[in-house]
Structures are given as structure tokens and as C-alpha cells.
Write a structure and sequence with these properties.
heterodimer; A: mainly alpha; 2 strands; B: elongated
Chain lengths: 313, 97
């Protein structure tokens, strides 16, 4: 028991000294479990996040937009893979991690349980959803677990194009016909609040936050990140002439931040609990893709075995 | 190697970003065979021309030193400051040394 305590002290000392934890290092069980949950949720979010956007690939308004959207969705698949690899360094098999997603045991970001009803939603997702994700991911580039931090650096490098292409879509629509502008505004109206929810519960209601901060898994609180996101995004909305759907939004001269209205946490909890507009559809799509791919996974192994045998002969 | 279709073998990926530079570890992925590992590594790790050459190594073939042994393992280098050029005092006025 004393030995474990010493190991924990050494571990915390390493963290306090800003040293990264690497896969073969000793780490407390709770640190490992916490990270397996967080990184795999993050990976699942990248993968499920392809579904709402994939919905518009065949209906993108031009070849240029279609090529961009394809590239973006392909990036998301890559991001999922970087993160799955990071989870795997903690000793969980890839098969188990995927199984937990498909069975519904593991969670992914609730934002992807909302539908993409118009082309403007693709703009709103890039601008707001990727924008919110970037806030979180920039922080995670300095997270204490080495493989997670390295995956995040790679992801952040690629993510900035995602946000910019989304904002450009919104800017173009906002400058277009009245109908196009209305479409952009409607997308902003629908995605604004779910995007704010992406930062998670308020600090007062986030029981794991203190421990995550102590372990330097996260370095900024949910509320801090949410506030920075709001401050930046309000200005960007003004530039393109769209309005944020929050009657309580007001610049606060004293705090030098925006004051804003209350988040509907009942809605958030409902979607997390599986009752969002698209929860069932998303999980069914992932299961179908996995099952339909069974023969490919088997055939590839059989082909590899055949080639290896020929080479040996 | 794994024969489980839901858990293809794991490969560690090394990318050379430019001719003349070293191959650097960038991450890992699952693939059924070396060719598939190389092609998947291209799609995953070089989408923005980050690479010029790819090495793939089965993860089970990588052997590593143990972090808990680090202190004694690297101990022999601790007391040999004379391996560094700054250890030596050069005579005043000598140039290009």
C-alpha cells in the first residue's frame, strides 16, 4: 500500500513538473480509466461526426464544395484513427473500443445527434461545432498523456481548415439572396445552443473536472472555454450580419466578456440519455457499416494469409 | 499475427517527411498485411504531403527499454562530462576550435 502511495506521489510529481506520461509508465488506475473513457469518446465523436456531414456530400451545391466536404469528412475519419490508436496504447484492444460504441455502452458528443436539414447546416457545423471542438482540442495539445497530446497536435493542424470552410459557407450564404441568408440564420439558430452544450456541464456541476485538472488532462474549465468561444463567435457573427439567437446576450464592460442566457440542460441531458433527434439513426448507421464490412475484414486477412504462404513457398 | 477479422495486426508507422531526413514515428494503425498498412498510412498520415517515404513495422516486433529502469540504465553516462566539448579549456586567442 505504501508502495502504491509512493508511486502515486512520483506520478503526480512528474505531472507537476510538466513531464508527459508515456504508455509504459506507471499510472494510477483511475487516470488510465479516465483517459480510456475520454479519448475513446473523443474518437467515437470524430467517427459518428462523419454521419451528419456525409448526409450532404451527394447534394453539395457545387463540385468545389463537394470536394471540400469529402476532404473534411476524410479528415474526421483520420482524426478518429489517431485517437483510437492513442486509446490502444493504454492497453484496450481496438475491437473492444469499437464494440463499446456499437453496443451503445460508450458515449460520443451529443451534438452529432442533431440532424443536418439544409446545406447551411454544413456551414454551421464547420464554423460552430468544429470551432467549439478546436477550443477544447487546442487545450488538449498540452494534456499530460503523451500519445493523446501528440494526436491532438496533429488534429489541430488539420482542424483549422474545417472551421474556416464552414464560416466561409455561412458568409457566402449571408451575402446571397434573402432566402439564402434566412437559411444561414436558421442554421445558426438551431446549432448555437447545442454548440454551447459541447463544452459540457457548468463547472459547478462537473464532478470530475477537479481531478482532471490536477492530472493536467485538462487545463481550462468548461465554463472558461465556453466563454472564450462565445466572445469570439459573437464577433464573427456580426461580421457576416447574422444574429446570435440569445435575447440575453450583452457585452459586459466590467468583465470584458459577453453575458449570455441560460442553457437548457434538460435538453442536454435528454440527448445524452439517448433521446435526441438522431441517436438511434446514428448508432444504427455505425452498426450497419460495421456489419456490412465483415466480409471485407475477413477477405483481407484471407488474402494476406494466401500471399504470405506463396512467399514462403 | 492476429487472425481475428475484428482486430487486424497493429503496425507502427514511420514517415520520412523529406529526402535526407530520418523516418519518424507518427502513430499506428491496423492492417491485414504490409501493403495495406503502407497504403492506409499514406491515407491517414500523408493527406497534406507530409511524407516522402513510409516504413511500417509490426507493433509486436518493437522491443523497448523499461522506463522504471531508466535511472540505472542510463547511469553510465552521468559522470562523463568530458564527452562534451565545453568540458575543455581552450588557450586564449586560438581560433576555429
Amino acid at each position: 500500500m505504501t508502495e502504491v502511495k509512493n508511486l502515486e506521489e512520483l506520478f503526480q510529481a512528474k505531472i507537476d513538473a510538466e513531464q508527459k506520461i508515456e504508455p509504459k509508465d506507471w499510472m494510477p488506475d483511475a487516470y488510465r480509466k479516465n483517459l480510456i473513457r475520454q479519448i475513446s469518446q473523443h474518437a467515437h465523436s470524430e467517427v459518428v461526426g462523419m454521419l451528419p456531414e456525409g448526409n450532404w456530400i451527394t447534394r453539395a451545391p457545387s463540385l468545389k464544395r463537394k470536394a471540400i466536404l469529402l476532404a473534411k469528412v476524410q479528415d474526421e475519419a483520420g482524426h478518429g484513427l489517431y485517437l483510437y490508436s492513442a486509446v490502444e496504447t493504454m492497453g484496450t484492444s481496438r475491437e473492444q473500443t469499437i464494440e463499446d460504441l456499437l453496443s451503445g455502452k460508450a458515449k460520443y458528443s451529443s451534438i452529432f445527434n442533431y440532424p443536418t436539414l439544409s446545406w447551411a447546416d454544413i456551414g454551421a457545423i464547420g464554423w460552430l461545432v468544429d470551432g467549439a471542438a478546436i477550443m477544447n482540442q487546442v487545450m488538449l495539445c498540452r494534456t499530460s498523456y503523451g500519445p493523446y497530446a501528440r494526436a491532438m497536435v496533429r488534429i489541430c493542424k488539420e482542424e483549422s481548415f474545417h472551421q474556416r470552410q464552414g464560416y466561409e459557407i455561412m458568409a457566402v450564404l449571408a451575402k446571397g439572396s434573402p432566402e439564402q441568408k434566412e437559411m444561414a440564420q436558421d442554421a445558426l439558430n438551431r446549432w448555437w445552443w447545442p454548440s454551447l452544450m459541447m463544452f459540457g456541464p457548468t463547472d459547478a456541476n462537473s464532478p470530475h473536472s477537479a481531478q482532471s485538472m490536477k492530472w493536467k488532462i485538462k487545463r481550462q474549465s468548461n465554463d472558461e472555454l465556453r466563454q472564450t468561444f462565445i466572445d469570439r463567435t459573437v464577433q464573427q457573427a456580426e461580421v457576416i450580419g447574422l444574429s446570435i439567437p440569445d435575447p440575453d446576450l450583452k457585452w459586459n464592460e466590467a468583465s470584458q466578456h459577453y453575458d449570455w442566457g441560460a442553457i437548457d440542460w434538460t435538453e442536454f441531458n435528454n440527448v445524452v440519455a439517448g433521446n435526441g433527434p438522431c441517436n438511434k439513426e446514428r448508432l444504427a448507421a455505425r452498426n450497419k457499416a460495421h456489419n456490412d464490412g465483415t466480409w471485407v475484414r475477413e477477405a483481407a486477412l484471407a488474402y494476406a494469409a494466401k500471399k504470405a504462404k506463396r512467399k514462403a513457398a | 499475427m492476429s487472425n481475428n477479422p475484428n482486430n487486424w495486426p497493429l503496425w507502427e508507422i514511420f514517415i520520412q517527411s523529406k529526402r535526407g531526413l530520418e523516418h519518424k514515428h507518427v502513430g499506428s494503425l491496423h492492417a491485414a498485411d504490409p501493403q495495406m498498412a503502407i497504403e492506409n498510412a499514406r491515407d491517414v498520415y500523408t493527406r497534406r504531403q507530409e511524407g516522402n517515404s513510409i516504413w511500417v513495422v509490426l507493433a509486436e516486433h518493437v522491443h523497448a527499454s523499461r522506463p522504471e529502469d531508466a535511472e540505472s540504465f542510463y547511469d553510465p553516462a552521468d559522470d562523463k562530462v568530458y564527452r562534451h566539448p565545453t568540458f575543455y579549456t581552450m588557450p586564449e586567442g586560438a581560433k576555429y576550435i
